[in-house]
Design brief:
single chain; 231 residues; Spore Coat Polysaccharide Biosynthesis Protein SpsA, Chain A; seven-stranded mixed beta sheet; two-stranded antiparallel sheet; 7 helices; globular
């Protein structure tokens, strides 16, 4: 299986930690965030990666190379346009047909959580299976949920934020492109009112740590320690 990883952000809220290195190379428990992600995703069966790079990207490419040191294949690309949606549209040509995964390169997910996303997506013949977070109050890219099903877009602060740690069919990515290509705001959350009734779109409440602040590193370390204790 193939995966796209967003790894181009600067991570300015991490202060000095990202002054001279890209955010995905910030260490958690002695390893870069992105290394944890790739190792865990590889354990879940993903062996081919397309990494969207930007800020200080030579450092990422030097560290990971072609992925052979991690028993995976890694290629790099720069997005045409801004935002994660444009990164996915840029990567489309590399993905072929069928199911692919996508991850945020500053997030820590366990292999068991990635397996759950892939397994749910396959068992339900889904067009897309996203993850969710509550997000900050100012975040407006939210969706309405009934059970595990996305039913539409939302601006209600009590509804969850759509997160692009996900599995998706490439055919549905094509649908998303056609839906948002002429819009100024291309967030997939805003497309759900148009698509939720016609496609099988799900979202799971999967635990993950988004590394935005120094305290998030401590939370991620605790999650990894807990995973080690649980085998």
């Amino acid at each position: 299986m193939k995966a796209v990883i967003f790894a181009g952000g600067r991570g300015s809220r991490l202060g000095e930690l990202t002054k001279f290195r890209p955010k995905p190379l910030v260490e958690v428990s002695g390893r870069p965030i992105l290394e944890h992600l790739i190792i865990n995703a590889a354990e879940a069966g993903i062996k081919e990666y397309f990494v969207n790079v930007g800020y200080l990207d030579p450092m990422i490419q030097e560290y990971f190379g072609n992925g052979s040191g991690f028993d995976v294949n890694i290629a790099y690309f720069e997005s045409v346009g801004k935002g994660p949606e444009q990164s996915l549209f840029t990567a489309r040509e590399y993905l072929g047909e069928g199911t692919f995964c996508c991850f945020c390169g500053d997030n820590i997910l366990l292999s068991s959580h990635i397996e759950k996303i892939i397994g749910f997506h396959s068992q339900n013949n889904a067009d897309a299976t996203f993850t969710l977070e509550q997000g900050e109050p100012k975040t407006f890219k939210r969706v309405r949920i009934e059970g595990d099903t996305i039913t539409g877009s939302s601006t209600n602060v009590n509804d969850p934020v759509l997160v692009y740690n996900m599995a998706m069919q490439t055919a549905f990515l094509d649908v998303l492109y056609e839906t948002v290509k002429d819009r100024e705001e291309k967030s997939f959350a805003f497309a759900m009112d148009d698509l939720a009734e016609r496609y099988d779109i799900y979202a799971l409440d999967i635990p993950f740590i988004n590394i935005n602040k120094p305290d998030d590193i401590k939370n991620a370390e605790r999650m990894l320690i807990g995973a080690d204790k649980n085998g």
